[in-house]
Amino acid sequence: MAIIICYMANTEKLYTLNKESRLMATIQSKRSRGHKYWYIVESRRVNGKPRPIVLEYLGKPDDLLKRLQGLTKGLRLKSYSHGAIAALLDVAHKLDISSLINQYVKSPRSYNADKPIRNNLTVGITLLLAAIGRVCMPTSKRGWSNWAKTTTLAYLLRCSLSKIDSQHFWDLMDALPIEAIPKIEKELLERIIKIYGLQSDTLFFDTTNFFTYIDTTNLRCTIAQRGKNKQKRYDLRQVGLAMVVTREDMIPLFHLTYQGNMNDTKVFRTVIKEIKNRLKELGLDVETHTLIFDRGNNSKKNMAIVTHLQLHYVGALTPYNHKKLIDEAIDNFEELDVGGNVIQVYRDKREIWQEERTVVVFISEKLKAGQIRGIYQSLEKKQKQLRELQESLSNSRAKKRNKEDLENKISNLVKGQFLKNLIDWSVNEISKGKFQLAFSINKEKLNEIEDKLGFRIIMTDRHHWSTVDIIKAYYGQSFIEHTFKNLKNPYHLALKPQFHWTDQKIIVHYFGCVLGYQLSAIVWRQAKSEALFTGALDTLLDMLNNIRLGTILEESKTRGRVKATYKLEEMSDEENAIMEALAIKDFHNNRPKFKDVGVYK
C-alpha cells in the first residue's frame, strides 16, 4: 500500500494533465512468469469501448520501493542538446530529404557498388547530417563527430555516428554530381510549397563571397579565385555565392556557387534566366513576382535581358552616373512619410537605357551620415600622411627630390572617393632638390559635397505602385543581406570553416550550407506564425540548442541491457511554447523512422 500512496503522490502532475478529460490514472499490477509488475494505467475509450492504456511501466514492487526511498544504486544521468536537432529532423523527415538526395547519387569509380555506403550511412543522410551540423554548431568535418556526441542526433536517428570522420564526408560528398544539385533544390522547394504552404511575391537577389585558404599553387581548384573580397581579404582566393530568397520568410528559392573573380554584373547576367525558369518550374506566377536587386548587379545589357524575359523588378542606379537627375530632384523634392520617417522624395517617369522606367530619388539620412563620416575619416588620414611628408621635406638631412616625382606622389596620396579637389596643396622649391609643402582643406568644396550626399535612385517597371511601396520594396533588400550575414555567423549556419579544395567538394559543401539554412528558415517561420516568436533566427537557434533531453540510465542487477529513461529538462515558458508550436515536445518518444539511412530504397 505504501508503494501505491508514494507513487500516487509522484503522479499528481499526470493526474492534473488528464483532469480536463475527467480521466484518472490508476496503478495496476500484472503477473508475468511468476513475477508481479506495476504499471500506471488510464482507461480510455477505443472504438466506443473502454480499454486500459499503459502510461508508464513502474517495475517490480521491491525495485519500485527502493527507487522511491532513494536506495536504488547504479543510476546515471546525462543530458544532451535536443531542441534544435528535433526541430530540424522533424522538417527533414516531412520533406524526406535523404531519399530525395539519394535519387541522384552516383557511385565514384573507387566503389564497386552501385551507390556508396560508409559506416552504414547513405549519401543522403550524410549530407543531411552535415547540414544540421552547420545550423547548430559549425565545425570542420573532422570535429563533427565530437559535436554530434553532445546531441540527441544518434538516438533520434537510431544509428551509430561515432565512426563518422572527415574521410566519411569526403567519400560520400564525392558521390553527388554537381549537375544534380539544381534538380534536388527544385524538387525540395516543390515539397516545401506543398507541405508548408510557402507564399511568395517579392524576391530578393544578391551576391557575396567567402575567402578560403586554398593555396595559390593548387591547380585542381578553379572556382576559388582572387577578386574584390567583401571582407577585405584581397590576399586570399575566394568563392562566390548568389542567392534568391523570399521576402516573407527568407527561404532560399535559388542559389549558385560561382568563381570568385566574377563581378556582380556578370553573375546577374548568368543567373537571371535560371531564376525565371525556377519560378516557372515551381508553378509560381511570374507576373505577380517582383525581383529586387542592388545597383551592383545591373547594367544596360542586364536590364535589356530583364525586359526581354518580362520580369518585374525594383533596382537601383548609381547617382554618379545620373547627375542631371539628381540636380532635377534637388529642385523638386517633396516630403513623404515612409514607415514613420519623413524623407525628401522626387518621383518621375523617364526613359533610361532605352526603356521607360519609374524612378524615385530620395535622401537616405543614414547613408548620408555614413558617407560624411567616411569622408572625414579619409581626410584625417590624408592630412596625417601629408604632415609626415611635410616634416620629412623640412628635415635638413632630407634627401634631394625630383619635383615632378614629388608632385605625382602627392597627387596619388590625396585621391579617394569624394575627395576630388577637397585638398588644396602646393609645392615650392626653396633650394636645389629641396621643397616645401603647403596644404589645406577646401571648406567650400566640402560643404558642396556634403549637400549632394545620401542620394538613392530606385527604378522599377511597377509604374502603378505607390512611391512608399517602391521604397519599402527596395529597403527589403536588407533581408537577403541579413541572410548572408547569418551564413557568416561563426556560431550558427556559417559556411566556414570549409577545408575542401576541389571544385566538386566546394559546390557540394555550399549546397549543404544552403540546405541547412532552408531547414532553419522553415523552423523560424513556424515559430513566428505558431508561437508569435519575434526574435532573430540566431536567437531561436540558441534557445533550441539550450533545450536538453535528460537520459536516466539504471543498471540491472543481472546481466542485460541498461534501462534508459528519457525526459526533457525543465523549460522556460517561452521554450515550452516554442516546442509546442513546432509540435516536437514528444519527438523523443515518437521518433520517426527515416528512409535511406543505411540502405538505398
Topology at a glance:
Layout: H1 2-10, H2 12-17, E1 26-32, E2 35-46, E3 49-59, H3 61-68, E4 75-81, H4 83-95, H5 97-102, H6 123-136, H7 144-148, H8 153-157, H9 166-173, H10 181-196, E5 202-211, E6 238-246, E7 252-259, H11 264-281, E8 290-292, H12 300-308, E9 312-317, H13 323-330, E10 334-338, E11 341-352, E12 355-363, H14 365-394, H15 403-413, E13 423-431, E14 434-441, H16 443-451, E15 455-460, H17 467-475, H18 478-487, H19 503-530, H20 537-545, E16 548-554, E17 563-568, H21 573-581
Parallel strand pairs: 5-8, 8-9
Antiparallel strand pairs: 1-2, 2-3, 4-16, 5-6, 6-7, 9-15, 10-11, 11-12, 12-15, 13-14, 16-17
Helix pairs in contact: 1-3, 4-19, 4-20, 6-19, 11-12
Short recap of the structure:
The chain has helices at 2-10, 12-17, 61-68, 83-95, 97-102, 123-136, 144-148, 153-157, 166-173, 181-196, 264-281, 300-308, 323-330, 365-394, 403-413, 443-451, 467-475, 478-487, 503-530, 537-545, 573-581, and strands at residues 26-32, 35-46, 49-59, 75-81, 202-211, 238-246, 252-259, 290-292, 312-317, 334-338, 341-352, 355-363, 423-431, 434-441, 455-460, 548-554, 563-568. With 601 residues, it is of the alpha+beta class. Strand 13 and strand 14 form a beta hairpin.
Structural notes for this entry:
- The protein is α+β, with helices and mostly antiparallel strands and 601 residues long.
- It is built from 21 helices and 17 strands.
- The chain has helices at 2-10, 12-17, 61-68, 83-95, 97-102, 123-136, 144-148, 153-157, 166-173, 181-196, 264-281, 300-308, 323-330, 365-394, 403-413, 443-451, 467-475, 478-487, 503-530, 537-545, 573-581, and strands at residues 26-32, 35-46, 49-59, 75-81, 202-211, 238-246, 252-259, 290-292, 312-317, 334-338, 341-352, 355-363, 423-431, 434-441, 455-460, 548-554, 563-568.
- It has a nine-stranded mixed beta sheet with strand order 7-6-5-8-9-15-12-11-10, sandwiched between helices.
- Strand 10 and strand 11 form a beta hairpin.
- Helix 1 crosses helix 3.
- It is elongated.
- The relative contact order is 0.13.
- Mean pLDDT is 85; it is low at 1-22.
